[in-house]
Amino acid sequence: MGKTKKWAVAALAAVAMGGAFTATAADKNAVTNQGNAAYGSAAVVAGKTYKLADMLTYAIEDEYAAHAEYAAIMAKFGEQRPFSNIMRAEQTHIARLTPLFAAHGVALPKDNAAQHVVVPATLAEAFKIGVDAEIKNIAMYEAFLRAELPAD
What we know:
- This protein has helices at 3-16, 28-35, 52-77, 83-103, 123-145.
- It is an all-alpha fold.
- Helix 1 (3-16) runs parallel beside helix 5 and helix 3 (52-77) packs antiparallel against helix 4.
- It is globular.
- The termini are far apart.
- Mean pLDDT is 76; it is low at 1-36.
């Protein structure tokens, strides 16, 4: 295994184990550019204040995007770690976010991330996409944590 691949696997694994809301691996820019509309973490701007409905929507879109990206990567390159592990984590994140929509009277967005996914040409690109997406995902949640949030 090459140095770059080892680093990428280690970075993705470290991020995936970081907590309940930090393990995604979709390329938010690819998802955004394909759909011509901000989606998930790509919609979040540093320093802006967001309503709870927007935070929930961007968060679940980000999880949808990560899940779709990993599914597409594995369809092209075969099922393998860390992609399979993080894809399962995305399913867990979606399952944990979903009841919050009903609890706060927010409409659950449809999962249409798969139609926006851009599959990387190489496995090395897939690892880079994952690392970049993690950085954007963390920045999104850090922005949300600056707001007053309900206990759940």
